Amino acid sequence: MLYPVKNKDYISDPYIASQWESIQVGLKKAFLLTIFGYGAPKSDVAAMELMKTAWGTPENRSIEEIEIVDIKPEDDLIETWVSFIYSHHYTISSNYFESILANHPRRSVEAYWQSLINARFKEENPVPHLKTLEELWNWFQELILIEREASLK
């Protein structure tokens, strides 16, 4: 999470520096990047440079997908994230429940890869609109239990 503070320092605090290092490692290996409502303000030069360095150029990410979940107009979002997006490899959703993450929980990258590379479209298993975090937690726990049982076979 990137907070809207004027003077950001991502390296002097050891814990924050380690988190940024983790983000950079993850971005270098990522196939699907989802951005939730982060406007990448011009004042946040350090964060954007760290992310750009880790992600690389769009030309080097010709099959990766950027997913942006934001209420801003598409043209504004593309302008903000153009240095991350290769050609048409992006999706924009105005809310979480329209996103790849919400429609393929715990399998978003697999679902995207199957549709893009193998032309096999996985059936959606959308996150339900639940009233409490406890209900959501329980719903995800069922998925995790099924995965664990399958991994033991």
List the helices and strands and how they pair.
Blueprint: H1 14-29, E1 32-36, H2 45-55, E2 65-69, H3 74-81, E3 90-93, H4 100-103, H5 108-117, H6 133-151
Parallel strand pairs: 1-2, 2-3
Helix pairs in contact: 1-2
Structural description of this entry:
With 153 residues, the chain is mainly alpha-helical. It folds into two domains: 109 residues, no CATH class; 29 residues. The model has no long low-confidence stretch (mean pLDDT 88). It has six helices and three strands.
Summarize the structure.
The protein has about 150 residues and is mainly alpha-helical.
Biggest sheet record: 3 strands, parallel
Structural class by sheet pairing and helices: mainly alpha
Amount of beta strand: 5-15%
Separation of the first and last Cα atoms: 37 Å
Shape: globular
Number of strands: 3
Estimated helix fraction: 40-55%
Total helices: the number is 6
Q: State Rg.
A: 17 Å
Q: How many domain units?
A: 2
Question: What series of H and E elements makes up the topology?
Answer: HEHEHEHHH
How would you write the strand order of the largest sheet?
A: 1-2-3
Low-confidence stretches: none
Give the integer mean of the pLDDT values.
88
Describe the structure using short key phrases.
153 residues; mainly alpha; 3-stranded parallel β-sheet; 6 helices; 9% strand
